[in-house]
Design a protein that fits this description.
Blueprint lengths: L1 H9 L3 H9 L17 H22 L15 H9 L2 E3 L1 H4 L12 E4 L2 E4 L4 H4 L14 H6 L35 H41 L9 H4 L1 E6 L3 H9 L7 H5 L13
Length: 278
C-alpha cells in the first residue's frame, strides 16, 4: 500500500504535462514573431527605386536624366485642350484680354493673324517682361523692325523699305555734258529706266525678306527649331484673329506707316550686294 501511494505521488499531473509541453526547451526552435519595424535600409531601397523610376521617366519624356528640358507639348494639359477644342477665333479686342494681366487666363500673342499660346514664358511675355508689348495683340510689324514701342501693329505695309538700299531712293542724274539734247534725253531715260527696274527688283527681294523674317518667328512659336525664342516645345498655335469688315476698311483707308528709327538705321547703304540685274 505504501508503494502504491509513492507511485501516485511521483506521477505527473495532466496540468503539469500541458505546462511542460508548451514551454520551449533548449533543443526546440523559437516560436517568436518576426519584427514589423521598417529599417533605414528599407527606406533607402524605396528612395533608390523612386530615383531610378524618375530617371527613366525623364529619359523617356525629355531625353535627359534630370528633367532639364522643357516638357513635350503632349504632356501639357493646355496643349491637349487646344487640340481637342479646335481653332480659337478672337477679335482683336478679345485677344487683348490674354496679355498676362489676369493670372486665370493664358498668355496669347498673334503673329500675322495666327494666335499662339506663350504661357510657358511669363517672365518674357507677362507684365514686366521684355516682350510684354507683344502679348494680347498682333504686333507682327514689331517682330520685323524690332521697334517694340512704336510698331505694335499687324500692318506690314511699307515695312519692306527697311531692306531696300539707300542708294535706290533717288533716281540717278547722268552727266549729259557735251551730248545733244536728243542724246542727253535718251541717256537720262535709259538711266532712270534701269534704276526703276532695279528698285522694283529690290522691293520684291525686300518683301521676300519680310516674309522670311515673319516665317522664322512663326516657326518658333509654332513649335519648330527657329533661331528666335521659343524652341520646339514651349509655344503652340491656338487659333486666328478675326476682324470686322469695318476694321478692314479702316486699314485700307489709312496712311502707310513710316519706318521707325531703328528700321531706318538698319537699311543697307548700297545695292552692290544685291543681284538686281542690269
Amino acid at each position: 500500500m505504501a508503494d502504491q501511494d509513492s507511485t501516485l505521488r511521483s506521477r505527473p499531473s495532466a496540468k503539469s504535462k500541458a505546462t511542460d509541453f508548451t514551454q520551449p526547451t533548449e533543443d526546440s526552435p523559437s516560436t517568436s514573431k518576426p519584427s514589423s519595424r521598417i529599417s533605414i535600409l528599407d527606406i533607402l531601397r524605396v528612395l533608390a527605386g523612386l530615383a531610378l523610376f524618375s530617371t527613366l521617366l525623364s529619359y523617356f519624356i525629355t531625353g535627359t536624366p534630370l528633367w532639364t528640358r522643357d516638357r513635350p507639348l503632349w504632356t501639357r494639359p493646355s496643349y491637349l485642350r487646344a487640340k481637342i477644342s479646335g481653332d480659337l477665333l478672337l477679335l482683336p479686342s478679345t485677344l487683348s484680354l490674354y496679355n498676362g494681366s489676369d493670372p486665370r487666363l493664358p498668355i496669347y500673342l498673334a503673329l500675322n493673324g495666327t494666335i499662339y499660346d506663350v504661357s510657358a514664358s511669363p517672365h518674357f511675355y507677362g507684365p514686366g517682361g521684355g516682350y510684354h508689348p507683344f502679348a494680347g495683340r498682333d504686333a507682327t510689324r514689331a517682330f520685323v523692325t524690332g521697334c517694340f514701342a512704336e510698331d505694335t501693329t499687324d500692318d506690314l505695309r511699307g515695312v519692306e523699305d527697311m531692306f531696300i538700299p539707300l542708294d535706290l531712293d533717288v533716281a540717278p542724274e547722268p552727266d549729259v555734258t557735251g551730248l545733244s539734247k536728243e542724246d542727253g534725253e535718251k541717256k537720262v531715260k535709259e538711266a532712270r529706266g534701269s534704276w526703276k527696274k532695279k528698285r522694283e527688283r529690290a522691293r520684291r527681294l525686300a518683301l521676300g525678306q519680310v516674309q522670311k523674317t515673319v516665317g522664322k518667328w512663326a516657326e518658333s512659336f509654332g513649335g519648330g527649331e527657329g533661331k528666335y525664342g521659343g524652341g520646339k516645345t514651349k509655344y503652340f498655335r491656338v487659333g486666328r484673329v478675326v476682324k470686322s469688315a469695318a476694321e478692314e476698311e479702316e486699314r485700307r483707308g489709312s496712311k502707310v506707316r513710316e519706318l521707325c528709327g531703328r528700321a531706318r538705321n538698319l537699311r543697307p547703304k548700297t545695292s552692290e550686294h544685291l543681284d538686281l540685274g542690269d
